[in-house]
Amino acid sequence: MELLNHSRFTQQELPACKPILTPALVMATFIVIGITFIPIGLSHLSASENVVELVDQYDEVCIPADSPDPDVVYSKRIGYIQDETTDKTCIRTLIVPKKMKQPIFVYYQLDQFYQNHRRYVKSRNDEQYRDPSASAKTTNCEPEAQLSEGQPIVPCGLIAWSLFNDTYTLSRNDVALPINKKGIAWESDRTHKFGDNVYSKNFQNRSLIGGGKLIDNIPLNQQEDLLVWMRTAALPNFRKLYGRIETDLEVNEIIKVVIQNNYNTYSFNGKKKLVISTTTWIGGKNDFLGMVYIIVGGVCLLIALVFITVYLIKPRPLGDPSYLSWNKNPASVQ
Amino acid sequence: MKRYVYINDDNLAKDIYCDNRISNRKYTILNFLPKNLWEQFSRFMNQYFLLIACLQLWSLITPVNPASTWGPLILIFAVSSSKEAWDDYNRYLLDKKANEKEIWIVRQGIRKLIQAQDICIGNIVWLRENDEVPCDLLLLGTADPQGFCYVETAALDGETDLKTRSIPSACMGIDVDLLHKIKGVIECPSPNKDIRRFDANMRLFPPFLDNDIFPLTIKNTLLQSCYLRNTEWACGVAVYTGNQTKLGMCRGIAEPKLTAVDAMIDKLTGAVFVFQIVVVIVLGIAGNVFKDKQGRKLWYVQYPKEGPWYELLVIPLRFELLCSIMIPISIKVSLDLAKSLYAKFIDWDVEMVDPETGIRSNAANQAISEDLGQVEYILTDKTGTLTENKMIFKRCCISGRFYGNESGDALTAKVGQFHTRHYPKMKKPLYVLLLVCAWFWRIKTEIFLILTSMHLQCNMKYLTLWSSHLTGKECLWWLGNAKAGNFSSCQKEQMKLFFLLPILIVSGQQVRTFAEAVEQYAQMGLRTLCLAWRKLEEDEYQEWTSMFKEANSTLVDRERRVAEVCQRLERDFEILGVAAIEDRLQEGVPETIEILRKAGINFWMLTGDKMSTAIQIALSCNFVSPEPKGQILIIDGKTEDEVCRSLDRVLLTTRITESESKQDVAFVVDGWALEIALKHYRKPFTELAILSRTAICCRVTPSQKAQLVELLKLCDYRTLAIGDGGNDVRMIQQADIGVGISGREGLQAARAADYSIGKFRFLKRLILVHGRYSYNRTAFLSQYSFYKSFLICFIQIFFSFISGVSGTSLFNTVSLMAYNVFYTSVPVLFSVLDKDLSERTVMQHPQILFDCQSGRLLNPSTFAGWFGRSLFHAIVVFVITIHSYAFEKSVMEEVAMVAVSGCIWLQAFVVALETNSFTIFQHLAIWGNLVGFYAINWIVSSIPTSGMYTIMFRLCEQPSYWITMILIVATGMCPVLALKYLRYTYRPSRINLLQQSERLGGPILSSGIIEPKSRSSLDKDIPTDSVYEPLLSESPSATRRSAGPTQRLDSVQSQSPPHSTHTRKDN
């Protein structure tokens, strides 16, 4: 009891810092934000500018479309892409706009592809991918869980089933430009998320074939395209790493890309793009952060300026008791 | 309904009446779970959460692991169930102890030791000194030859002084041994809860007195849970047992009180629920449309061609689950924790410890502290609440001479000396009478001083002996309300009887002086007492005694008949004098009332006293300003017409003065007029009650007090009733907040109350400090809880638009659960230590309480502000996250963690910006929470099997993660800060103004202190536009009713608009 009586906590008398929003404090805050944000924004923008990026949308051009009627085009395209026998090779040429230093990253970009769709994003079973003895565990994987006879599909689930399967072969001046596909997946995925003795089984063996196939005698964790694909994207437009080019590309070099246009984005009018890009400390090209930094910094400076102006024109003493409404007695004012 | 108790009959009663097993338990082992769950689920919030939790079990629609709802839900339920179970178990142990206590009873004429629970109706129970009474007993015999015994009734009514009980006259003189064999029948009412009445009678069978019915009263009983004191032994017959005793019947579970804040939160929750349903329906429709238009084309999703019948419902239900976090599950836990801390602060407060007795203030009801800050009406008792209830014999008027002046000591001596000299004949009856009265009024010592100074043959021993005899019925009986001075008593001594009654009955020349004296004394705020006497002859006395006895033994309407009989005796008195007794005001009462009235609280005084005394006390307590500012209007009249006319007149005057608003109007009404007004003119009286800030109700009964509370509550005012005595209990229980003063009239009121304090003056601290802080803190805590839930929920909603409106959750289960339970709850919990203004400032500017009363800090418009803020912040977090983590970075887990971190950073700064005073705890909670967030996520990220493996490490390595965080904070907080600053500087609220003046060390002045000169010079510098608008009307806040005192003040104050300054300037 004695302790309670004398405790500053119980008496609610703990020493406290009671800051208030004085004009000086607020203005200083805004000025500091403005002054620091604009340089950060500028450096971010310049880093983004330094990224050399080659984007080629090839879904439209790599497919025959010879009808003015969009419905006909649509069904023709689907027929084309779903026909396994057709040769879907498509050749694109790209010009390097600026010198690109290695490592250069090759991505594929899909637009309007909902990897975050609820039916899709949940349709996986990490335990099965990790543990060779858990191959029968296909919970959540419906409808790509098992064959009609009941054998489990490894890897199960819609995500694996819809594996992206376009391929790119690059060449420069008729010399093949090798794309290194090792180490494109996260290391943690290779070591922990996917087992090194889990092999695909019954994959793409149902009547309905989704995307790419896997090689049955290579462990899952070495088929890095799958690992990359299985890192689902949060946004409907996303890029995934395809591989790395480990030589520099000079300006105005012409790059020939041979695309095997296998993947169906036509039924939902999605786009496919090939992206070849360098990176800097901010990663790939992204002007957004730099722009917003500059805008926020600028607005903060503007706000500070307005506040200072207002303060100079209409100074108002803080804490003037005569503003208290009960002190504003009409009788005493007059 | 009557009950017949056959004394000492073992066989008869057993079957008819219950045994003496006491049970206070609410549950048994078997029914605990269902009953407790049923009780918990009768609340809407819990039903809602249960529904959500059940829906989550359906894996088709659940966005996250069901654990995210089941976990907290089970935790909340487990906590409150185990609390209930623990309480019940303790009650069970107490019951068991009482039930198994060994008690001596008589069975078949032999004394036996049995357990208390086996006592039957009709058993004779023997008690020794300091024994607890096991059931309600009718006293049959005691060790005292006169048939008295003493009991302590503290457990029953809280009064600690010993009460005298006597055996019925029928049992007088029965030998101790014969008591074992006594037989008879007692006719008594069915079990009831009235602990002040026991209207029964008794007939003893031969060989004892036969065929004579003896009346019994409460004076002949020993009630359960009382203690036998100062008496060697006593025995009695059990009349009520088990849970049917008076105590058992009184026991009841009080209705839980709901504070205005709780009601507002419930309302807002309801609104949020509706909003949620709308969102769910809209998103559900959008989801189904998207599914049909686009979703079926997404081959990789494999929508089946034919869905089950409930297919259309799946998407809306998913969104329902996704949006269920909109109503924060943590709010109840947070609020409960906060509330119990508020209560503890009240208990701990050393400034509310009564220095005389060392009694601490106590918050018996932990749940209603916020209401203290929203009190609008205080209904107070007078005696013992405002006054000390210490009667001091101040003045007297004997034979037309006035004695006494300001100091009581002089009086004692003077009266003594003077009177012995001049009126030797008069002295004895007068002082004997005074003594009789004094005994009631508990001023023994005072009178004793007089007596000794008079050299009467009366010493301390005699006095004590005598006063104990006075309790016996033979010597004295008294009726009516002793407090009000309206009582008559008689005392038989050497065949002489003295009578005492109000003087107004007597007429004649001599009376006038006394009437004047009474008037004069009453005006001084003293309690007056007229002393008169008459000599009775022996036969007259005998005749009257038998009548009285008869009246006293009626079962029906006993009080009225006794009163009638007594009136027969009360005539032809000779007036001896008038005595005036002062009941001094408690320390600090006028100041407290003044401060609380300044704070906009309306005071009603409800007293049993006479009108003039009440008015006098009211004036001295600052209830009403003295003339000419104050105006007292009296409603009186004996008939309906008179009351009606009077009421109309008062109402008219009040309306006029209210519109002019310069005056302070109080109305005074007495119990009789009040009865009529409440019965027939309820509407005008209600209007008057709303208009008038002050009321004095005199000569009111306890039930009228409760009626008045009810009346104000019906007008939707927050009422606080404060009292100290048993007559205030009903009012205290009725009011929104009951405050009891642990005073001289026992603890009865304090026990029934939600708060008990030692002195009236602590009320201002209770309301202005504890109530106000509690309200402010809860207002922030609750709205913040909604803010953070909205924040995360909006992000989920936005995300659904880029995930094909399919109801995907962006966040994983762990993050969602930890976000609600941990990350966002911990920092804000320490806002219970926040103090917007120092206690000193609040005391100097009690007007600041207006803000709490009108609910300015928690209402739909402030809530809308928080809603808007959460929407804005959600947009900021979402847009920045998806743009900075676009393309190759848009990995689900990473984006989710960036968004969560953005929310955590923002909320830390929001709490920091809204905190008025940072103690070490706040810093620890706010910034420590951020550290905790990263620590927890790093731990989770290092578990290989978790879905988040390595995510947080990867993010923290990226500069763009930190750049994004800084951007989110800056973009989210800069507009908030700018707006807050503008408001703070150019349209400050009253709280802001006081904060500024308090913290910048500026002059803290109230209107009274400010010199007009300095003010006018200030005025000139002040721009006359928006700045000078009445600050009270800055937000459309007082939403709870159409016309209240605060709004009235608003309109009053808005009469001091800018143009007044203009005109002066033009001059």
From TrEMBL, chain A:
The keyword Transmembrane helix applies. The chain crosses the membrane at residues 20-42, 291-313. It is found in: Membrane. The keyword Transmembrane applies. One of its GO terms (cellular component) is endoplasmic reticulum. Residues 124-144 are annotated as: Disordered. Keywords: Membrane, Transmembrane, Transmembrane helix. Signal peptide: none annotated. Belongs to the CDC50/LEM3 family. PANTHER family: ALA-INTERACTING SUBUNIT, CELL CYCLE CONTROL PROTEIN 50. This is ALA-interacting subunit.
